[in-house]
Amino acid sequence: MDMIQNLFSLKGKTALVTGARTGIGQAISVGLASAGAHVLLLGHRDNLDETKAKIDEAGGICETVLVDLGEVPQIREKIKPVLEKHSIDILVNNAGIIYREPAVDYDEQEWMRVIDVNLNAVFILSQEIGRGMVERGSGKIINIASLLSFQGGVFVPAYTASKHAVAGLTKSLANEWARYGVQVNAIAPGYIETNNTEAIRNDNKRQQSILERIPAGRWGRPDDMVGAALFLASKASDYVNGHVLVVDGGWMAR
Ligand code: NAP
């Protein structure tokens, strides 16, 4: 039991999770807090009460940080006071948005917004928070990638481009920072029941055809991501670098 505690406990660690209000970010925040981490819940509107209540219920500790990750030029300034107050051991770059439109009509502003939140903000937060990790000689960065880090998808060119880039950035930062004791890895979730997939779940034909390809025979739930996140956030993954861990009920194996 002691060995397991030693490998997976996050007692004394501070984690920052972006997009912590809902879905995968909420589940990972509760999971990290349950493992003992003090969790900084990053959202862009002051409405993280549901996540806070779940962490309270689990006996964990958290606080809220408000930063709009779509306002890229302001991120460094907004995160500065957080870094003055906390030394962050675990960064989960989870916040992400999707915009669907056929490529020939794809709105340029929406393209920019998706790339800003899903990629540019991920780099800036990794740089600002990773700097301290490199100086201290330890840290964990977990990026939330996607099956569209490997596949093309339909009607979501900005999302696909951003998620391919997130996988590349994960490997790039891992190569630079592994020698400093900082592990940078990613989780690529399969099809998960969250706001992100509401539109395709409401399209009965699409929902069914996706389901038919999932060997596990069901869509994923946000909680399905927690085990992988705990592994990548803890000592258990100290020799895992630049890996994109697919958690998809077998979709990619099909
Ligand atoms: P979600 O419930 O829509 O979560 C996205 C989170 O990001 C929300 O909490 C949202 O906050 C936050 N966010 C959006 N724009 C933001 C901004 N400008 N600044 C700060 N936070 C912002 O969907 P999810 O599925 O859990 O998504 C989490 C991650 O998983 C995303 O990176 C997504 O691409 C990835 N992913 C999801 C699936 C899936 O099947 N669901 C599959 C692969 C990858 P508000 O709700 O307050 O706007």
Q: Could you state the order of secondary-structure elements as H and E?
A: HEHEHEHEHEHEHHHE
Distance between the termini: 36 Å
**Helical content (DSSP H or I, runs of 4+):** 40-55%
Please give the domain count. 1
Average pLDDT = 98
Question: Would you mind describing this structure in some detail?
Answer:
This protein has 254 residues and is an alpha/beta fold. The protein has one domain: Rossmann fold. The chain is 44% helix and 15% strand. The chain has nine helices and seven strands. It has helices spanning 2-8, 23-34, 49-57, 75-85, 108-136, 157-177, 198-202, 204-213, 226-233, and strands spanning 14-18, 38-43, 61-66, 90-93, 139-144, 182-189, 244-247. It has a seven-stranded parallel β-sheet with strand order 3-2-1-4-5-6-7, sandwiched between helices. Helix 3 links the parallel strand 2 (38-43) and strand 3. Helix 2 (23-34) crosses helix 9 (226-233). It is globular and about 45 Å long. The chain starts with a helix and ends in a 7-residue tail after the last strand. The model has no long low-confidence stretch (mean pLDDT 98). Residues 18-19, 21-25, 43-45, 68-70, 94-97, 117, 144, 146, 189, 191-192, 194-197 line the site of NADP nicotinamide-adenine-dinucleotide phosphate.
Key descriptive features of the protein:
alpha/beta, 7-stranded parallel beta sheet, single chain, Rossmann fold, 254 residues, globular, 44% helix
